[in-house]
Specification:
The chain is of the alpha/beta class. It has ten helices and seven strands.
């Protein structure tokens, strides 16, 4: 069985640009914000492993489907945490064996960017508190330390950060994928 790699992010942390870099690898099944989409829309379309998509309508179904996909290929999903995902705390066993990574950005830049887009933004919607809760949940699994990426370091030295991330999550570093970061880095 391949692995499932989670990237948890607060809003405006440059996580979508990172996700695009992972897509460029070409050797990983990538799922974009499935949990936040479930909360917002009640269902989410995810890859079916054969070039099409399938809709799931619950966290349990999503995690089952990810495990099915991971039988043949590594799965990477990134999610933002503007909502608290109570399901994770009620069912921590669902994610206990995932490789957990986190991306954080300087709060001044994050909040300024969010405020520009949505002047009514609230502190919980930014996501730092929810991100910390997930970090603490994962730390409680007692496995090795999670990978934390600082967005500003990623911007200043993308190759070094991505090489280290790949080493820590057990993926080979693929130079061609970094080209995607150079195109989109810092735009999300």
């Amino acid at each position: 069985m391949s692995k499932i790699i989670a990237m948890w992010a607060h809003q405006r942390a440059m996580s979508t640009a990172f996700l695009r870099m992972v897509i460029e690898r070409g050797d990983v099944t990538v799922i974009h914000e499935p949990l936040v989409t479930l909360v917002d829309e009640g269902r989410v379309s995810v890859p079916d492993g054969h070039g099409d998509t399938v809709e799931v309508d619950s966290e349990a179904a999503l995690f089952r489907h990810m495990r099915d996909l991971a039988r043949t290929r590594t799965v990477f999903f990134k999610d933002t945490v503007e909502h608290r995902c109570g399901y994770l705390f009620a069912h921590p066993e669902e994610i206990a064996d995932f490789e957990h990574t986190f991306i954080v950005r300087d709060p001044h830049r994050t909040i300024a960017s969010l405020y520009h887009m949505k002047p009514t933004i609230t502190c919980p919607e930014v996501g730092y508190e929810h991100l910390f809760e997930i970090f603490e949940l994962v730390r409680g699994f007692g496995r090795r330390q999670s990978v934390v990426i600082h967005a500003e370091r990623l911007l200043s030295n993308p190759r070094e950060v991505v090489v280290r991330w790949c080493e820590q999550v057990g993926l080979p570093y693929l130079e061609h994928a970094l080209g995607a970061w150079r195109v989109v880095g810092g735009m999300t």
